[in-house]
Write a structure and sequence with these properties.
Elements lengths: L1 E2 L2 H13 L4 E6 L5 H13 L2 E6 L19 H11 L3 E3 L3 H4 L17 H5 L3 H16 L3 E5 L3 H13 L5 E5 L19 H6 L1 H15 L5 H13 L4 E10 L13 E9 L2 E8 L1
Parallel strand pairs: 1-4, 2-3, 2-5, 3-4, 5-6
Antiparallel strand pairs: 7-8, 8-9
Bound molecules: pantoate (PAF).
Amino acid sequence: MLVKEIKELRSLIKAWKREGFTVGFVPTMGSLHEGHESLIKKAVSENDKVVVSVFVNPTQFGPNEDYDSYPRDIDKDLTLCMNAGASVVFNPISKEMYFDNKSTGVSVSGLTSVLCGAKRPGHFDGVCLVVSKFLNIVTPDKAYFGQKDAQQVAVIKRMVRDLNIDVEIVTCPIIREEDGLAKSSRNIYLSDEERKAALVLSRSLSLARKEIKNREKSVGKIRNIIKKEITKEPLAKIDYVEIVDSESLENVENIEKSVLVAIAVFIGKIRLIDNFIF
Ligand code: PAF
């Protein structure tokens, strides 16, 4: 079922809650793939009702980013959601989500000034604003996010904690193509040659994981291994290679406790991200 109006969604959810149903929520920007499908299926397995939002959120794109060209296909998305067992697809229009004279923002400091936050100023303010609005509208028991956007998960968890939002954030593993490329809505932009070159992301991370498993503790050494591998690929340009504390996202010099190894790499013009937590 497709719902476009906030009012309609709210009354549906109120009716569910009166019946005692639990509600799971999967926020997306559409152009859904198996990664999103796995989040929806997980939500369906853990809740009575599941709402999937499909909304290309303008406030999280920078002026030179791909908001206008971001892939949109609501019919295909609706079919995927319904087949995966979702109860409702919420596809609001921008005007209903954002008032022309809106004057409220949501911003999480510290965690957002590193990794993707450092490279995409204002991005996480947009993410936090839209996710807090959705959590207010949907009031879910649980909300599902993919580990592929590791920083987003850390930032949303912090926001939910700091604002006492009554929701459990569930993180789901990265879904990969058979050859290792992390699934992403942006993969469709890659030419055949770039698609092959993009494997350098997962390949370099596998090398790093092997080294850490072999008890290499130096962050500098691991970072160099990743950089060396990526540099071998002529179509790749490193945006960042970082190894940080997996919760605070603060820099570490040695691997003593749980770390996030995160990379962002341009393949041609397409910026791809990948990561693992060790
Ligand atoms: O991860 C995404 O697709 C987006 O950042 C989200 C969480 C749907 C907010 O627009």
